[in-house]
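Anyone up for a design puzzle?
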């Protein structure tokens, strides 16, 4: 895929970042000019959007300020909430006002009413993900439902409602990008609350159990989701974490496709981002160790068969935990920054630099540089003895592909998969590498003899 910026564009972006004039330039050139092409692909995948449509919407955003950026994306999210409400109302479901309450607070009655309607189409989101159009939804329902015309119409309406809610969740996440400011944090919490309600409503139809994970650690709280196969037996379990501005809902939506894998999955956000109070540093390693201990003690988890998956900056933590945790049996690091990526990079937008400052708690650019360099894993590669799958595109324009290569070469038992002509985290081959990593994890975490 092509994510390459021209040299002139990279120079202008860096010049605007250095002079703090990005906002002024964005009013003329659009906010999208200062974000990589990967930004469009990422959120188009999450929400099942047509890439051209989402790209056009991004082109219409003309400010990064908290109020204007969020007002723009929140308005689009509200359109999808309204469309979901219309679809549900036609089936006698929750009223538009009742659905709106899910964005701003807990409403069990609305969730119960939503569950009755959407649980029968949970397979649609789980097996096929969000779709770019109603026509695509109708085709899939008609091909797979095998119901009478009347029943199929009801299923289509429910599937449309779910799809619209996923799109609203996605646009609220775009609004929250990259966190750290009041309006963005409001969008973050609204996206999370809406997803909480949706996943609760879908759970009976997914064939898995969904739990909230909450681990208080040193004045902070790690929150996320855990999913387990139906039943009560212990199972191999994978901890998944994402990057600088990723959320658990972004992790969970595509992973529903693998709900029949037999694996337990625990998803948490990266320390320092969004709702965390403490900045991220090398000391955040202790947070992951405690989360791993918490997961290992869960009654559904076989503590002898645990893996770790990280994407982008989460890939850094996958590699670091592979080197330092005695609990893990394997790890997957996708698009991990480990050393070269912590140096200066031409074309890094001001908004990303500010996000890094916020996440690391740096006092400014020089302090940020020191904090990032202190995270280098170069001297830890050889400590990784468990199986490690390293994934990336061979043309990473956000971080350094060389980091993925060096990590794989330095670890003692690694497999490197670089996707040709692809960008950061191989997003152009997203489904392909998810399939690959799932099969690899199942192979590595196959049953072993464990004490009674």
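Challenge accepted. My sequence:
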């Amino acid at each position: 895929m092509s994510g390459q910026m021209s040299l002139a564009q990279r120079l202008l972006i860096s010049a605007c970042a250095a002079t703090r004039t990005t906002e002024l330039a964005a009013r003329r050139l659009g906010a999208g000019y200062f974000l990589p092409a990967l930004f469009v692909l990422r959120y188009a995948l999450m929400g099942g959007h047509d890439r051209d449509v989402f790209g056009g919407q991004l082109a219409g955003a003309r400010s990064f300020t908290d109020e204007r950026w969020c007002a723009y994306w929140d308005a689009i999210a509200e359109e999808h909430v309204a469309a979901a409400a219309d679809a549900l109302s036609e089936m006698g479901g929750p009223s538009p006002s009742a659905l709106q309450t899910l964005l701003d607070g807990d409403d069990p009655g609305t969730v119960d009413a939503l569950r009755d309607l959407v649980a029968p189409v949970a397979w649609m989101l789980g097996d096929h993900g969000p779709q770019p159009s109603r026509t695509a939804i109708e085709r899939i329902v008609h091909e797979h439902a095998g119901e009478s015309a009347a029943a199929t119409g009801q299923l289509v309406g429910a599937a449309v409602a779910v799809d619209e809610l996923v799109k609203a969740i996605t646009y609220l996440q775009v609004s929250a990008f990259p966190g750290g400011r009041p309006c963005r944090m409001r969008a973050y919490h609204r996206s999370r609350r809406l997803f909480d309600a949706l996943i609760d409503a879908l759970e009976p139809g997914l064939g898995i159990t969904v739990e909230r994970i909450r681990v208080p650690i040193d004045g902070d709280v790690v929150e996320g989701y855990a999913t387990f196969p139906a039943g009560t037996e212990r199972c191999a379990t994978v901890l998944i974490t994402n990057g600088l501005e990723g959320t658990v809902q972004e992790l969970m939506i595509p992973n529903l496709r693998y709900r029949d894998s037999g694996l337990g999955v625990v998803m948490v956000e990266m320390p320092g981002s969004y709702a965390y109070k403490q900045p991220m540093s090398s000391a955040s390693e202790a947070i992951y160790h405690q989360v791993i201990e918490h997961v290992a003690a869960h009654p559904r988890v076989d503590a002898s068969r645990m893996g770790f998956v990280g994407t982008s900056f989460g890939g850094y933590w996958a590699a670091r935990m592979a080197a330092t945790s005695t609990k893990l049996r394997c790890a997957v690091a996708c698009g991990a920054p480990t050393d070269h990526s912590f140096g200066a990079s031409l074309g890094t937008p001001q908004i990303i630099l500010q996000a890094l400052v916020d996440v690391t708690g740096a006092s400014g650019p020089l302090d940020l540089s020191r904090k990032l360099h202190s995270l280098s894993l170069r001297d830890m590669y050889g400590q990784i003895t468990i199986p490690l799958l390293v994934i990336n595109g061979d043309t990473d324009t956000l971080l350094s592909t060389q980091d993925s290569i060096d990590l794989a070469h330095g670890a003692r038992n690694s497999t490197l998969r670089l996707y040709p002509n692809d960008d950061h985290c191989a997003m152009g081959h997203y489904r392909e590498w998810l399939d690959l990593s799932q099969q690899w994890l199942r192979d590595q975490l196959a049953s072993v003899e464990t004490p009674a």
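A detail worth pointing out: The chain has a mean pLDDT of 92.
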